[in-house]
Amino acid sequence: MGARTLAPRPPWKGRRIVVGVSGGIAAYKSVQLARDLTRLGAEVDVLMTRSATEFVGPISFEGVTGRPALTSLWSAQGVARHVGVARDADLLIVAPATADLLARAAGGRADDLLTTVLITVRCPVLMAPAMNHRMWTHPQTTLNASHCREALGYELLGPTTGPLAVGEGEGEGRMVEVEEIVERAGVLLGQDENWAGRRVVITSGPTREPLDPVRFLGNRSSGRMGFALAREAALLGARVTVVSGPTALPDPSGVEVRRVETAREMLAATEALIPEADVAIYAAAVADYRPGQTRERKTRKEETGHRMAVELTENPDIARETRSLRPQSCVAVGFALETEELRERASRKLESKGFHLIVANPAGEHDAGFESDTNRVTLLDRDGGEESLPLMTKAEVAREVLARVTAWLSARDASPTQGRDAS
Ligand code: C5P
């Protein structure tokens, strides 16, 4: 993670995270974990088992969190703070969770500060086991891990396979990377009851319409806006599938991505998903036309001469074609990228494509629209609301858009309706 991405922000900002550290070699990585969570804006209390202090000093944690690491129940500080720490925690992360820690947690022991806090908290618990692979695969550890998961509701992340401590070779037992723990912590902290478990379908990116095996008609869409929406929805706890045209971007984490090329492929993939969607977001820049014929062989200049005419056929409109497949309660969001008459055109599309909300953005500005990391948008909704937002990153725009969808999701829960939108 770069310094920029560690700036304080939701869902970490102002949240209270307890990081429990037990005694394994991976404990050194937990210093970075505590540091990253602190830089993201969380208030981090570190609790160390006695054996953890054999691997890392409490002062290292104090140095990165600005708060004293607690090591013992039997100190004035330990007694005074453990109840408060447990009561106020939004999330408890145990990293690394050793075989012994898992055993004590599974047994409901409260024989040190960390296990005492474990059975006092009522917040989500995320554990990152790390140990020798023989210990991890021991039937007793398997039992303890599944008891923690199934009976106690703790979430276990990893371990993964890779190099273990020196002399222990490779195997399953390595703690997951700190980035993965932070990522998952973000999801647990950001879970929004309006979004948790919701199915979100997003079309994203450009489409490519082949002229021949090597050439295509396309557009400048980078897919950044669609992927930002996918990522933010996943962080709220939604189950997100993106139907993405060709993009150079890596898949956003926690999101299923179905890659397609043409508008017709995008339509087919979207049609299959939309009947189950709670939220449909049409962020793709779909090519309006495709070559009427795709040549089987590469077109050569000798064959075409100085001029070449390509007849284009209209592509299906995915938002329009899937409108009748959307459940009646599905909240639909569209985009409009226009070079002129932005407001009027966007408002017509809002109506004709059956959107609840349309995100209108100007084309041809260097800091907004295609290929930019930032965007300047106006949000128009079907209740007549209109709001122009200042220049912001696409992640911020995504959060603004989803915040407006939340209002419809919660209203819909207040008066649930069934069936399809046949309008
Ligand atoms: O291209 P247009 O400005 O009409 O796009 C408006 C909205 O309709 C966007 O949300 C876009 O993703 C969607 N759309 C679509 N299929 C098309 C064209 C547009 O789903 N063929």
How would you portray this structure in words?
This protein has 423 residues and is α/β, with parallel strands linked by helices. The protein has 2 domains: 3-189, Flavin prenyltransferase-like (Rossmann fold, 3-Layer(aba) Sandwich); 192-297 and 305-414, Rossmann fold (3-Layer(aba) Sandwich). Helices cover 34% and strands 21% of the residues. The protein has helices at residues 27-39, 52-55, 58-65, 76-88, 99-106, 113-118, 133-136, 139-151, 178-190, 224-235, 263-273, 301-304, 318-321, 342-352, 394-414; strands at 16-21, 43-48, 91-97, 125-129, 155-156, 160-163, 170-174, 199-204, 209-210, 216-217, 239-244, 256-259, 279-282, 289-291, 312-314, 331-338, 357-362, 374-375, 378-381, 386-388, 392-393. The strands form 6 sheets. An 8-stranded mixed sheet has the order 12-11-8-13-16-17-19-20, with helices on both faces. Strands 2-1-3-4-5 form a 5-stranded parallel sheet, sandwiched between helices. A two-stranded antiparallel ribbon has the order 6-7. Strand 16, helix 14 and strand 17 form a beta-alpha-beta unit. The relative contact order is 0.09. Bound molecules: cytidine-5'-monophosphate (C5P).
